[in-house]
Design goal:
The structure is a single chain. With about 70 residues, the chain is of the alpha+beta class. It has a domain at about 25-70. The protein has 3 helices and 2 strands, in the order H-E-H-H-E. A two-stranded parallel sheet has the order 1-2.
Length: about 70
């Protein structure tokens, strides 16, 4: 149990730090219809943007729903 405002602030800072270390995952469809409609360009654009901005994110292609992503 927190006993002071300072303890709450410390806990808040610790939580923010932990959240900032989490890496987001962006999945882009790579099924036949998606690729035919330009999803590979979207994938490359997102991948480049994430890298340029130094974001904590991973961009992956997903060939079929329910299967593991593959880049």
């Amino acid at each position: 149990m927190l006993k002071s405002h300072e303890e709450l602030i410390k806990l808040q800072q610790k939580a923010k730090s932990a959240l900032s270390e989490n890496k987001m995952r962006i999945l882009v469809c790579a099924g036949t219809g998606c690729v035919a409609n330009g999803s590979l360009k979207v994938f490359e654009g997102l991948k480049n943007l994430v890298q340029e901005k130094g974001l904590l994110a991973e961009v992956d292609l997903v060939k079929e729903v329910g299967h593991e992503a593959s880049a």
